[in-house]
Structure formats: C-alpha cells, structure tokens
Structure prediction request, 121 residues.
Amino acid sequence: MGMRAYRDELETKIDAKFGSAAKVRETKQSLGALSASDDVIDILKKLGCLDHIPEANNLESYRTFIRKIPKLHLRVLTEAFRTSLSEERPLRMTFLHRQRVESVRVTDIGSEIAVEFDRTD
Prediction:
C-alpha cells in the first residue's frame, strides 16, 4: 500500500472518530485523559487510526519515518485534534497532494474544524 492509499484510509478512520459531535464525544470517552505530551501521532495511535500503516507499529520508528513533516505542522495538527476533543466539535481532515512544499491549513468554521494537510510525497 502506498502513502496516498495509507492517507485515504487514515482520512476514513479520522472521519469515523471525529466526523460528528456525537462521534467526537464517543471518541473522547474511549480515549480517556491525554497526557500533556500526547501529540497528534499519539492520539491517532491510541485510537487505532494508524493500525493499517506497518511503520506505525512502533511509534519511535514511525516518528523517524515521518520526520520530514515540519514540527510546526505537527503542533498545529495536535492543537486541532485536541480542540476537537475538548470542545466536542467535528474535525474534517483532508490530505492533499498538490504542492511542492508541505503545508497545513486549519479553518475554524464554528461548528467544525476543517484541516487540509498538503503532502509532497
């Protein structure tokens, strides 16, 4: 399975956990309390959203595998997911493949959080 296929499945899994306020509430309850150091990778791993990615079986090696994602983007993604959970608002994640540089765009439209993550690979 290639990176685009992994991301397509990841989008589907994120939608299953964050696609509506009710889903976010269920996800929040099943997830329990997050530690202060838990980032987006930890959150998605705890929810089983990364289980289809072989490299994610070991988080330390997965972090090395995705190291080219800018740290700022990981922090922004973490904040978006934590906000979705704390405020029980839906989050829509879309992976794009149209740029020559990595980018992340978060739009707060009040009732939901929309995230566009543009990847170069």
About this structure: The longest strand covers residues 91-96.
